[in-house]
């Protein structure tokens, strides 16, 4: 079981498939979710916590993952250089990467 | 030489205006910036529109860079070009590689805001032959002139390659043969002399804390190593207010000389640009994770949307916008002791033409559309389709009833239902 819900959809905004949304199963997973992404190579972008966020970057692609601490909303922010034709595929790949990184952790936290 | 751009910043808290190197700066996103440039081209055609935009950038950037260089005396031309390039990147406009001497040269641009933004927004479904980076072109020629202590207008610039036409990068040629120009603009001293006393509006207890939080966040935002600022789900620039104002003023002067009947239509386009700004920029920010993290996801209460937009306008340096009256679904009266447009009009524009005044009235309509035409819960959909739909069926009309550009005590716009 992943910390992420099963759905990935385009997020609001005029960004031509650059912004995608998914949600944590519960906002309480926000810290553990960020730690799990750190463990698979995502780098925390400093300074976001004062906005009530975690922002993590997949450095090889510059794609960013924005986590809203109070609500558990997760926005995938594909780098603006991403080719138009590849954006949907990239969003799906990133989503699956995050799901794999947090697979099993939700159940483990629930049993603690 | 140690160059710290932050030492040249000045904030006028009573009027919510910001200055960099003595020039007024505002935050605008790529949606508005592209819309604004398109508005100039719509009025004059692409070729003349581009010239107006390059000249506006040239004038406003010359004034900015002169101010910055004067703040760091005894700099060499190479150091001055470094100041120009690093400032451009810090403001979110991309990277300029200024290989220029006193007679000009070639400038390579990477991630230039307009071309990069256009390609990201439209590149999947449109092609464009006209270059997009007039601001970078005007900035490059100004940087060269300031670096070598040349008079403004000694040189000229044109963008020879742009990524919007399929080129792999952008190239700007700076060469001899420019036209003399006057790099006028607003400065903090003259602003303080003419701005009327400030005042509060309704719901300040809601607005003020949000402005403080936004300013704290924006104070730490600068271009990344590409010179790109991505925040609130948009590409953001810290931009020269004089650029927008010179461009619109110059178009107005050309229309007055050649096609006076077109002036009212152009003013309507400027109001629409303000409307687009409110919808895309304010609406996009309200729907963003940043807003949700700091303030909370909008519930859909119209007052919450209106006060949120007023806070954004202040934090972006548009002026101390305030609410004089708000009746949900009926009426909004906004006031301000000056906006970045009306201040320019008051100080720089000719009395007959009174300069641009689109952002305040246009945003008034856009704010009412956001407050009453958007389904905020469970999730809003701030996109081009909804914008067009709301614009076509808009029940709102706006009237400017007072403006400091005409010497009156405040700016006021009244938005009512038709």
Task: Give a concise summary.
Chain A has helices at residues 30-39, 87-101, 105-111, and strands at residues 9-10, 19-23, 43-44, 53-58, 63-68, 73-77.
Q: What does this entry look like structurally?
A:
The complex is a heterodimer of chains A (112) and B (418). Chain A has 112 residues and is an alpha+beta fold. Chain A has three helices and six strands; from the N terminus they run ββαββββαα. In chain A, strands 1-2-6-5-4-3 form a six-stranded antiparallel beta sheet, with helices on one face. In chain A, a hairpin with an 8-residue loop joins β1 and β2. The longest helix of chain A has 15 residues, at 87-101. The model of chain A has no long low-confidence stretch (mean pLDDT 88). Chain B is an alpha+beta fold and 418 residues long. Helix content of chain B is 47%, strand content 19%. Chain B is built from 14 helices and 13 strands. Chain B has helices at 30-44, 46-71, 77-90, 113-122, 134-147, 188-194, 204-219, 241-258, 263-286, 289-294, 302-315, 340-347, 359-373, 384-392, and strands at residues 9-12, 17-20, 23-29, 95-101, 104-110, 155-161, 170-176, 229-231, 234-240, 322-327, 331-336, 396-402, 411-417. In chain B, the strands form three sheets. A five-stranded antiparallel beta sheet of chain B has the order 1-2-3-9-8. In chain B, strands 4-5-7-6 form a four-stranded antiparallel beta sheet. In chain B, β1 (9-12) and β2 form a beta hairpin. In chain B, α1 crosses α2 and α1 crosses α4. The radius of gyration of chain B is 20 Å and the shape is globular. The chains are: A alpha+beta (112), B alpha+beta (418).
